[in-house]
Amino acid sequence: MFHDIDAVLFDLDGTLVDSVPDIAIAVDRLMAALDLPARGEAKVRTWVGNGSENLIRRALTDSMDGQADAELMARARPLYRRFYADCVCVYSTLYAGVADCLQALAARGLPLACVTNKPAELAAPLLTRIGIERYFATLVGGECTPAHKPAPDALLLAAERLGVTPTRCLMVGDSKNDIGAARNAGCPVAAVPYGYNHGRDIRESAPDVVVASLAELPALIA
Fold first, then answer.
1. Where is Mg(2+) annotated to bind (predicted)?
2. CA 129 to CA 204: how far, in whole Å?
3. 77 and 100 in one domain?
4. Which structural domain, as residue segments, surrounds residue 73?
5. Residue 49: what pLDDT?
6. Dist. CA 201–CA 163, nearest whole Å
7. Which residues make Cβ contacts (< 8 Å) with residue 93, sequence separation at least 6?
8. Which positions make up the binding site?
9. Which of 34, 39, 151, 170 could form a disulfide with 147 if both were Cys (CB 3.0 to 4.6 A apart)?
10. Statement to judge: residues 78 and 98 lie in one domain
């Protein structure tokens, strides 16, 4: 049970929304534009979770840790954003339990924030088109702070915008970066096991609790 929680901060991709189908479309359009082989959804699913910069680099090199040519990266960045903006919510879906969770927390008057490494210009239309933007008092995108999760910057900014103490914010995510950001910010953290964590069991990162569905979360907040 979580006590003394004044706000809840949610990661987006892999926590609230399965966005990989649309991300994969954008990646393969990028590959086609650069005369490179299509990568496919299965590979893209293993690459997401660390922001678009890492995703693009992995797509260009067809590997998790490859180093892409700087000039090619410079060409790829605006193309990827354009392609993804065109299909940001075509096949993306809410995970089971998300709508019930957000409705229950909103009914209790808890302010909610979406904290994501995805650029806000792409996250905002995704939240709108998938129908959950009304639940969030603020959106902190990847360009809003100098450092991405697992740095605490985005969580601290979200807490500041909501007017609450970071240690009284509950972070909810799907990856070791979410858990690391919460620990670095001094926040308690809940995790879901179904998201984008590069094939690793999220329990290895020692969140305070793992919930199979976000529908279970409101009952854990005192």
1. 11, 13, 174
2. 34
3. no
4. 20-86
5. 84
6. 33
7. 17, 18, 130
8. 11, 13, 174
9. 151
10. no
Q: How many of the other CB atoms lie within 10 Å of CB of 196?
A: 24
Number of independent structural domains in the chain: 2
CA distance 117 to 150: 10
Q: How confident is the model at residue 199 (pLDDT cuts 50, 70, 90)?
A: confident
170 and 110 in a single domain? The answer is yes
Q: Report yes or no on 177 lying in a domain.
A: yes
Binding residues for Mg(2+): 11, 13, 174
Residue 37 dihedral angles phi and psi, to the nearest 5°: -65, 145
Q: Measuring CA to CA, which residue among 144, 142, 143 is closest to residue 177?
A: 142
Q: Does 193 share its domain with 98?
A: yes
d(CA 144, CA 116): 10
- pLDDT tens string 29-49: 999 999 999 999 999 999 998
Residue-averaged pLDDT of the chain: 96
Cis before 152 (ω within 30): no
Single-letter code of the amino acid located at 108 = R
Do 11 and 49 belong together in one domain? no
4 is catalytic: no
Query: CA-to-CA distance for 157 and 177, rounded, in angstroms?
Result: 16
- Over residues 55-64, the pLDDT tens digits come to 999 999 999 9
Provide the CATH number for the domain around residue 36: 1.10.150
Element at 11 (helix H, strand E): none
CA dist 65 and 116 (Å) reads: 22
- Both structure tokens of 131: 């129908």
Write down the catalytic residue from 11, 18, 22, 178: 11
